[in-house]
Amino acid sequence: MYAYAQQDNRPNIIVILADDLGYSDMGCYGGEIQTPNLDKLAQEGIRFNSFYNASRSCPTRASLLTGLYPHQAGIGRMTFNDNLPGYRGQLTENGVTIAEVLKEAGYQTGMVGKWHIAETPLKSDQREWLAHHVYHEDFADKACYPVNRGFDDFYGIIYGVANYFDPFSLVNGDIPVRNVPKDYYITRALSDSAVSYVNRYANADKPFFLYLSYTAPHWPLHALPEDIKKYENTYKVGWDAIREKRYERMKELGIFSGADNFLTTRQSPKKWEDNPTKEWDARAMAVHAAMVDRMDQGIGELIDALEKNNQLDNTLILFLSDNGCSSEVCQNYSEGENDRPDMTRIGEKIIYPRKKEVLPGSELSYASIGPIWANVANTPFRFWKAKSYEGGINTPLIAFWPKGINKGKGGITNQPGHVIDIMATCIDLAKAKYPKKYQGNSILPLEGKSLVPILKGSKRKGHEYLGFEHFNEKAFIAKDGWKIIQPGNKAQWELYNLNEDRTEMHNVADKYPDRLAKMQKQYEEWAKRCMVVPSPK
Asked: For the chain, which residues score pLDDT lower than 70?
C-alpha cells in the first residue's frame, strides 16, 4: 500500500458512462434535450470531438476499466464464453481494473450502475427469474463482481439490460436486492447512490475513484411521466427537422471547427409526412429524451454533493457514452429470454409493440427508438452502435476539473483519444503504478496514454494508431487521420481521410490503393497482437 501524508492533494476521479447515448443528444454537442448540468461541465471544462469507444457496451466497459483493447481484456464480443483468448465473455485475470490499481495507490473506490463484463450463464428457469418469480443467489461468478475487481462498494446491475422500474440482476455489494420500492426508477436510484458514496468518501483523508455507469438511455424506453411530458411535442416535427436543427447547432458551437457541409445523408428514405406511426415515433424519441434528461438531473445532484463537501474543485469528472445510439428494434426480440422480461413481478404481461400498438414509456411496454431516430441521435454521422463507422465508435467526451483545467475552458479539442486512455489518465493523476504482476498473474502492458497533457492545454504525443473490431466490423485509424473500415468479412475495405472528410462521406479506396494496402497490413498486425484472432466463426 502506498503511504501519503494526511493531506492528500491528489484529485478525486469520477468517470460517468452513459449507455447508448447519441453523439449529439446533449445540448453542448448540439442537441435539443435539456442537459444543463452536462452543459455546465462542458462550459467549464473541455470537450473532445474525436474520442473513441469500442462500439458496444461490454467491450467498451472492459477496455475503459483495464486500459487494454477489449479482446485483450477478454471481451471481444459479448458476455458469453466462446472459449478463445479474446472472447472469454468476462474480464481476464491478465488485466487489472482502474479500481484495483487506484486502491493499491490509496484511493477509495466505488462503482454505481451497470457492470456487464462478467459471463452471465442462462438458467433453465430464466423467464421466471427475469420476472423475480424465482430466486438465484448468483447472476455471474461472484469472483467477477465489481467488489472482487477492486471496488470497495458497488450498487447496480450485473447484466446489460434493465427494467428501469424493477431491474433484474440488481445487487448491493455482492448480495441480490430482492425488492425495490413502488416508486423506484433506476436512474434516480443510481444517482442517489453516487451522492451517498460521495458524502461518505468526502469524510476520509484520502481521495476517491467513482465509476458511475448509468443504464440510460439504453432500451427499453422507460421514463418517468413528468420527464416525458417535457418533450411530448418536441419530436412531432419529425426526423429531418430535428436532425437539421442539431446540425446547425453543432456548426454554431464549432464542434468540428473549420468543417463545412459535414452532415451525412439521412440513412432512411422515409418521409415524416408519409409516416403512418407519427404519434408512436414522436413519443418514442420523447421517452429517449426524458431518459437523458433524468440522467442529467442526477449528475446535477452529484455536482451539488461534491460542492457541499468541498470536493468539486479538485475532482476530475469524465463523461462519455459507451457507443453510438442504438438502431436496435428490441420489440422484435423474443420476450422472456436472456435479459428481456415478458412479465412484471406481479404477473402483468409486458407488451412488445411490434406493430407500435402500445405507446412506450411505462413498465408494461418494451421498445426502442429504432434506426431512423438513432441516425438522428448520432448527427452528423452515419450508422450507430456496433458499427465501426464514426456513428458507432465516436463518443462525446466532457472533461471537467476546476483545479486542473486552466487553459481553453469551454473549448473543444480535436486531439484523438480512446477509452484505453482513461486508465492511463487515472494512473497519472493518482501517482500510481501499473503492475507487471497482480495477485500472481502476469499483466498485459498498458495500451492507453494519459490524457493529462490535453487537459493541461498541451499537445500530447498520441497513439500511432487505433484499432477496432466487433463482430467482424473492422476499422483502423492512423495517427495522420486516415481511416480504413471493413463493414463485414465479405465487404470491401473502405478508406477515408478524416482530416477533410470528418463524417466519412467519400470513400477514396480506389484513389489511394497503396495507402489502403499498407493500412490493411497494419490492421492485421494489430489484430494478431491484440487477440482479435483467432476469432469465433
From this structure: 1-7
